[in-house]
UniProtKB/TrEMBL annotation:
Span of domain Pyrroline-5-carboxylate reductase catalytic N-terminal: 5-99
Originating organism: Mucilaginibacter ginkgonis
PANTHER family listed in its UniProt record: PYRROLINE-5-CARBOXYLATE REDUCTASE, PYRROLINE-5-CARBOXYLATE REDUCTASE 3
GO biological process: one example: L-proline biosynthetic process
Protein's name in the database: Pyrroline-5-carboxylate reductase
Gene name for this UniProt entry: proC
Binding site for NADP(+): 70-73
Amino acid sequence: MKTKRVTILGSGNIGLSLAKGLVKAGIYQPDNITLTRRNVKALQSYANDGYNITNDNAAAVANSDIVVIAVLPQQLNGLLDNIKLSLKASEHLIISVVSGVSCADICSHLGFDVQIVRAMPNTAIAIGHSMTCIASGNASNENVTLVKSLFDTVGVSIVINEELMTSATALCACGIAFFLRSIRAASQGGTEIGFHAHDALKMAAQTAKGAANLLLQLASHPEQEIDKVTSPKGCTIAGLNEMEHNGFSSALIKGIKTSAEKAGALYKSE
Ligand SMILES: NC(=O)C1=CN([C@@H]2O[C@H](COP(=O)(O)OP(=O)(O)OC[C@H]3O[C@@H](n4cnc5c(N)ncnc54)[C@H](OP(=O)(O)O)[C@@H]3O)[C@@H](O)[C@H]2O)C=CC1
Ligand SMILES: O=C(O)[C@@H]1CCC=N1
């Protein structure tokens, strides 16, 4: 089967992470991927690596099969106006990673129907470890399966109802920042109790990876694994309870709720 040509409209943080992930997974060569942004000079190093780069979105769409939209919500309508005439409902499949914008919103702005699959990856896609949520309002099952298989090569993906996409944004896409901040905070604690910053960060990151893998590989519950660490009258339960008295779980839960509310409002507030 002929390799599908992919264009990424809006090659910023997540667009470039996706491109790198697809190439790292070996399912695409850089020359099958076109990257666009207005300041195309910023993509020069990618051209040196073999990617096609351009600031001509319409031409890029005309030369592609799969069109990934990866601009900010407030940049979306301008981009859609830009590519409208090049989009062919019978030829193109759109993958939108834009937060808070439904498939219906996109078709409504375009003024015609085109198959759209929404995907919510996270930046770990660059190294093949994304948690990606996928949803579609109007794409064929075949195309949803195609998109899922694409994202399965760069991490783990699940198909969810479109109404849960803003929640997925908060938990999984923003979630990368939340867990990174937790690791950073742990490393700062480590430095205060005696480790050089570089060592403390490595120790905290590897400990976090071990904790996540305990859940993923043993399919166990966090509290089951926590119970194995908290010796009676021990130091773990003392530290954990101190964190809870300071609102540790509550802060995470409230932050995730706030992010979900904001993710749902980004496009509508434009
Ligand atoms: N960052 C993340 O972890 C995730 C982000 N998302 C979503 O992905 C989208 C992009 O986010 P992110 O990558 O962080 O944002 P960035 O600002 O890093 O990337 C957006 C890119 O779009 C380009 N752009 C803007 N307008 C146009 C245009 N008309 N034509 C072509 N390119 C354009 C910008 O470059 P220039 O100004 O040069 O045109 C920029 O490089 C957002 O909707 C976000 O919600 C989803 C999942 C995770
Ligand atoms: O912060 C944001 O709005 C984007 C969406 C998810 C991750 N980054």
